[in-house]
Structure of Histidine kinase:
Amino acid sequence: MVQKAKILLVDDRPENLLALEAILSALDQTLVRASSGEEALKALLTDDFAVILLDVQMPGMDGFETAAHIKRRERTRDIPIIFLTAINHGPHHTFRGYAAGAVDYISKPFDPWVLRAKVSVFVELYMKNCQLREQASLLRLQLEGSEKDAGESKESAGLLAELSARLAAVEEQAEALTKQLNDESTDAAAVATAAHLERKLTGLRRALDALDPGTGSASSVPSQN
């Protein structure tokens, strides 16, 4: 069973949270509510999120301050943030949102279909990154096993072939996603995230190729950042 991605919804007004849940329910992911910046930061301490929808105007800690805290934490700094605001103070206000680390800044009332489409892109990128981490973890386990028992070369070759096939499937999906993003001229942040994912996949592919008995050994595997 594929694990669902978590989407954090941050707004001090219950009716706005309810509206966001209605819009995003079609994505069939896990929607987590937070009614304040402080509550959002607590949720981020324990859970991983694909994207954060963050209201700008909130009493106490507003959206900009909340985003600043999120970007300062190593665990959460790379989570995409979409700012939502009911008022538009012009380009300066929008620039402040992007300067705070947002990947998008949307004024209310917004088009539900557009918001859902934007969120779905970041959910898909998050799922691809999760697949990549799982493949990298599996590779490390197999490398450790190979080092302990180098004599089982035939079994190792079979494991490498299986890993290579699994990685090829992820590579194909990532390539299709990148092409879709480029063709549709989606947000630059989403395109950049997809490119980063492809670079990670390239590094993992090189690691697998280095394990081929005909081209190298486990000791030549490049480190993964």
Q: What stands out?
A: The CA atoms of residues 67 and 100 lie 6 Å apart. The chain has seven helices and five strands. The chain has a mean pLDDT of 78.
